[in-house]
Amino acid sequence: MRKYLPLIRASYMVSLVYRFGFLFSIIGNIVYLGVAYYLWKSIYQGRDVLNGLTFNETFLYVGLGSAIFILLKTYADWIIHFEIQQGTIATYLTKPLDFQLYSLFTNFGAVLMNLTAITVPTAVVMIFVFKVQVTSGIGLWLFPISLIFAFLISFSIDFFVGLISFYSESVWGVTATKDIIVTVLSGGLIPLQFFPEAMQKILYWLPFQAVYHTPLMMITKADLGWGTFLPMLLLQIAWAIILLIASRLFYNQAIKVIRISGG
Amino acid sequence: MRTLGEYIRLYFIIEAQYIKARMQYRADFIISSIGMFFTSLATLGVFWVILQSVPDVAGWSLMEMVFIYAFFMIAISPMQILFDHAWQLRFHVQEGTFLKYYFRPLNMMFYYMSEIFDLKGLIQLVMGIVLLIYASIQLQIDWTLLKIFLLLITLFSAALVQISIIVAASCAAFWVVESYPVLGLAWKLREFAPYPMSIFDGAFRFMFTFLIPIGFVAFYPSQLFLRPEEVSLLVYFSPIIGIGLFSLAYWIWTKGVNSYTGTGS
Amino acid sequence: MSLIHIENLNKHFKVLNRREGLSGAFRDLFSGDYKTVEAVSGISFDIEAGEIVGYIGPNGAGKSTTIKMMTGILQPTSGVIEVNGLVPYYNRIRQAQTMGVVFGQRTQLWWDLPVIESFKILREIYKVDEKTFKQQMEMFNDLVGLKALHMQQVRTLSLGQRMLCDIAASFLHNPKVVFLDEPTIGLDISVKAKIRSLIKRLNTEHKTTIILTTHDLGDVEALCTRIIIIDKGKILYDGDIKKVNALFGAYRTLKVQIDNFNESTLQTLQEKIVNHFGVDKNLTVAQTEEFWTDITFDQALTPLSDVLNFVMKNFSVLDVRIVEISMENVVQKVYDGALG
Asked: Could you tell me if C34 lies within 8 Å of chain A, comparing CB atoms?
């Protein structure tokens, strides 16, 4: 496992080269925060609580949701698609490296870069400019752990989609569909509490809510305690394991085809 | 020099061949169309979910918001269909393949953008038209000839605004190696266009009206048809804003093209 | 008046000095540390209609920069440049109408379209009339059998076929001047020969001026009547091919791998060779890659067998290769006064 660790630093450094790219991502996200702030303010229109969430909680949920979106946006699906399509995947297959682990660690480096360059500044802006309040509670401690599993789930989905797009030859179509399904059904755009009851029940059993909704609940409702969070966390861990294994099996299948057809 | 008519003729000749060739990748077309369908549907879904909990957003009902969104979808279609090659500009610039666009006796923006005709954008256009008709019926909008004329003018202007923003943003590739975030930002701003601008105040309303006037992509012009009595005078300037912005974007493109040196020595 | 007139042409670039490592990358974020590079400095030449000129030099010599100025992509920092009586940079579209360009391995045809459709679109772009179009297509067919490729998609063509199509396409509108950048790069010998004969024929057909940049001295030998050698932004030689031809043609480099090679080996070899063959035979010894020692010599003065025998006798040789003289060697020879 140790040989994979330098990959984190390498991809972190690669991300750094992109001179002022981060500046624009930060600006973009601050504008988004502003838009979300006004939008939800006009939705609340003096109401204290909607669907069990105060304005402060909803804004925290949505704002931090956008920060997590950027955090997890490593374009792993696109990169894997192009590695296979252009045949560069062959160079990994000849090295004593596992391609999936290689992608995982490279992505982790990119995630760390996103964290320092965009997610942390976004959080700072939310606290100091928009004066968002965070309640203390056990959820705050579980949040970072939950985020790691959110990353694993998101990575597995991306990895899966990268492989599918190889079969379908339509990287845009597949990733766009995936992006929109994941963000909407996971609470990336609106808190899941706003969805009709019946839909919420279905969404609970889908893996998507584990990407945004679970960590975001731990921050917005940090004081809910173990009784709520433990099942959520366990479900999230279960999804992470299931999806990692599933994407692994799919990868083994795909690599056979790639080996035969030559990519 | 060529006349506009010659360029249009040439565009049809190139695109007819392009579409014929793309039809070999039918799976890609179908999957992309599905992706486009869901992507377009998502914002509507968000509106619908929100309006399950509250009766209106800043006084705008669900159907009114659907109308604005339908206007938005039609207005951004020309950008999607005709200017989609803007997304690849950074690759061409970095890899030096952009050079070839200098060698033809054609307007470079024309030649460059003509290389891609984005078929999936047609899905967006069709969805937009269907939704606009549906919302008009629900809202009982009385379409007079004058209104239809105004609709076409405002859609044209709104399309120009959207095209200008994306073209100008893509031009960052001429000066910055990793220019994607600039385009990414412009793209993200586009997502805010279908929201009622009246929810914003101060700096945000100013920004979306004057600096990056995405308010003109959907909300302001839609007011002409939804609430003619509340219409802001600015709406009547939208053709000027559209043409002015496009001129600015074209100027930035020309600057970029002139400053590009190509890779290698 | 000459077709291309260049006088005291200069092009300078500003480039950012990048730093190494993680902290360097951080500091580059705020860096304003630029240096000026003189890609082309003070070159002058005239090219007449109908000439085929080889414009050669090592990588980074300033070839592409000059071509980009001639085609109107780059604005010169200073100096005069006129092609067909126009300043390219200010008349790009008019210039493009009388110009053809082929840039190495990057095709300018429509990737997804059948070859014939690309030609039809080009016909519209350049406003080539029906009759001329037919004539040209017939000619291309006679020269390289283009008809066989008509219905093939450009993306499915082999590199050689694509290059043939690209070159043909660049002549479709009867341009006054055609720029060919590395037209034979990455192709095997037989395809190279095919491309060379196509270029030659197209040149004679309509007296089209051709400017050829290449790394392959075979291209130059086969096609050019005149050669311009450029290095470090300056012209080293401009003149008749014959003089240079002798140089390219006769020189060979013998590469040997010597057992127990160390720093003094090179020195010893150099001394022994000079002692044995004499200074006037002009043999040079150098090391250009790891483990290999290069001995460059003129075959007209010293037969290959003599050199090989001598080295084998005096050293324990592990491996041997014989290569034609490289662009770098030619430039070095010119510096050393070989054309003086």
From this structure: no
Please tell me what DSSP assigns to residue B85: G
Instruction: In whole angstroms, give the CA distance from residue C164 to residue A196.
Output: 64
Q: Which amino acid is at B246?
A: F
CATH class of C250-335: alpha beta
Average pLDDT score over chain B: 91
Q: What are phi and psi of A74, to 5 degrees?
A: -115, 0
**In angstroms, what separates the C-alpha of A168 from chain C's closest C-alpha?**
18
Instruction: Choose among B33, B58, B192: nearest Cβ to A42.
Output: B58
Q: Which residue of C has its CA nearest to B97?
A: C106
User: Does B103 contact C63 at a Cβ distance shorter than 8 Å?
Assistant: no
8 A C-beta contact, residue B32 and residue A170: yes
Burial of A261 (0-12, 13-18, 19+ CB in 10 A): exposed
CB contact under 8 A, B103 and C96: yes
3-state percent breakdown (helix, strand, coil) of chain B, nearest 5: 80, 0, 20
Residue B100 domain flag: yes
Coil, strand or helix at C216: coil
Could you tell me which residues are beta bridge partners of residue C101?
Answer: C179
Would residue B265 count as lying in a domain? no
* Contact at CB, B176 and A175, closer than 8 angstroms: no
> How many whole angstroms separate alpha carbon C50 and alpha carbon C196?
16
Amino acid at B101: Y
A13–chain C Cβ distance below 8 A for any pair:
yes
Instruction: Give pLDDT tens digits along chain C (340 positions).
Output: 789 999 999 998 877 666 655 555 556 656 667 778 888 999 999 999 999 999 988 888 888 899 999 998 888 999 999 999 999 989 889 999 999 999 877 888 998 889 999 999 999 999 999 999 999 999 999 988 889 999 998 988 999 999 999 999 999 999 999 999 989 888 888 889 989 999 999 999 889 999 999 888 888 888 998 999 999 999 988 988 877 766 666 778 888 888 877 778 888 888 888 888 887 777 888 887 777 888 888 887 888 888 888 888 888 888 888 887 777 777 777 777 766 5
CB contact under 8 A, C28 and A19: yes
Question: Any idea what the Cα angle at residue C337 is, between residues C331 and C340, rounded to 5°?
Answer: 115
C-alpha to C-alpha distance for C226 and C245, rounded to whole angstroms: 10
Backbone angles phi, psi at C34, to 5 degrees: -110, 150
User: Which of A28, A15, A36 is closest to A116 using CA atoms?
Assistant: A15
Q: How far is A141 from chain B (nearest CA, A)?
A: 31
Pick from B10, B17, B100: which is nearest to C113 by CB? Answer: B17
Structural domain that includes position B154: 4-259
Structural contact between residues B261 and C68, judged by C-beta atoms closer than 8 angstroms: yes
B264, part of any domain: no
CATH number of C49-232: 3.40.50.300
Domain parsing of chain C, residue ranges? 49-232, 250-335
Mark yes or no for CB contact A184/B36 under 8 Å: no
Computed on alpha carbons and rounded to an integer, the radius of gyration of chain C in Å comes to: 24
pLDDT digits (tens, 9 = 90+) for B97-143: 898 899 999 999 999 999 999 999 999 999 999 999 999 999 999 89
Helices B219-226 and B145-170, packing angle to 10 deg:
170
Nearest CA in chain B to A19: B178
Would the CB atoms of B21 and C101 count as touching at under 8 Å?
Answer: no
Q: Which amino acid is at A54?
A: T
Chain-chain contact of B105 with C64 (C-beta, under 8 angstroms):
no
Q: Which residues of B touch C153 (CB under 8 A)?
A: 21
Number of domains comprising chain B: 1
In C164-298, beta strands by DSSP E: 177-181, 209-213, 226-231, 234-240, 251-258, 284-289, 292-298
- Of all residues in chain B, the one with the smallest CA distance to C95 is B105
